[in-house]
Each structure stands twice: as structure tokens, then as C-alpha cells.
Amino acid sequence: MNSEELKKRTKTFALHVIEAVKKFPRTMPGEIVGRQVVRSATSIGANYRSACRGRSPADFIAKLGIVEEEADESLYWLELAVDSQLITALEAAPLLKEADELTAIFAASRKTARKNKIQMNGFASCDCRFEILSL
Fold first, then answer.
1. Is residue 65 part of a domain?
2. Facing residues of 2 across strands?
3. pTM for this model (two decimals)
């Protein structure tokens, strides 16, 4: 999966989370959990775009770490939403699956980037230089 495909995938995930949260009950727990899951889900794509504009290999790796954390945090909030009955397990299943897959993709990407120390000429952007392999 290349960086443009991954940018699109993270944006689509965020949009699906936003749509799901619109159905949460208008209660204090619904508002709190909804706000948190939207924040973390939208941060995945935003931080990945930022990583792609990284100024150095170290910056790219550090920002990928943030992306991985946000994906995992999204998974946590979605699990909490199911466990607290803000959303049904059936409705949440595709979101949980995608959050888990994104977490795995970014964890593997960061591990590979660290292992390879991202040695390349003319580092400027991940748009054409970094390819993320889907798991």
C-alpha cells in the first residue's frame, strides 16, 4: 500500500467513525466517548500526513509512532463504546477491524523504518519514497 492509498484509507476510517458517533446517545458518556474516539480517529490521518512531510528520517519515525498510538487509542475508545453499549458490536465490528489493521500497519512500518534506518538520497517526503506494505 503506497502513501496516497494509506492517506485515503485513514481519512475514510475517520469519516466512518464520525458517522458512527453521530448515532451515539446524547448522554454524558456518549458525548465523552464520542469526542475521544473522533479525536483519535481523525488524528491518525492528520498525523500520518504530517509524518509524510517529515524533515528527517528520525522525524518520520517519531511521527509514525504518534500515528500508531492514535490508531491503538481509537481501538480502545471503540471497544469502550461497545462495552458501554453506546454502539452495537455489529455496528462497531468494521471500525474495530480497521482500527486494529491500521495499528498493525503503522507498527510494522515504524519497525521497518527503524530497522532500515531509512537510508535514502534526498529525503524530502514520503509521498514517493516510502511504501507501506499492508499486512
1. yes
2. 131
3. 0.85
Question: 3-state class of 38 per DSSP?
Answer: helix
CATH for 100: 1.20.1440.60
CB 78, CB 91: distance < 8 Å: no
Best CA proximity match to 43, nearest among 76, 74, 78, 20: 74
**Is residue 122 included in any domain, yes or no?**
no
Give, for all 135 residues of the chain, the pLDDT tens digit: 899 999 999 999 999 999 999 999 999 999 999 999 999 999 999 999 999 998 888 899 999 999 999 999 999 999 999 999 999 999 999 999 999 999 999 999 999 988 886 455 344 445 434 445 444
- Dist CA 77 CA 88 (whole Å): 13
How far CA 44 is from CA of 27, 75, 95, 109, in Å, comes to: 26, 12, 13, 14
Q: Please, are residues 42 and 10 in contact by the beta-carbon 8 Å criterion?
A: no
C-alpha distances in Å from residue 89, one per residue of 14, 20, 54, 95, 131: 18, 12, 37, 10, 33
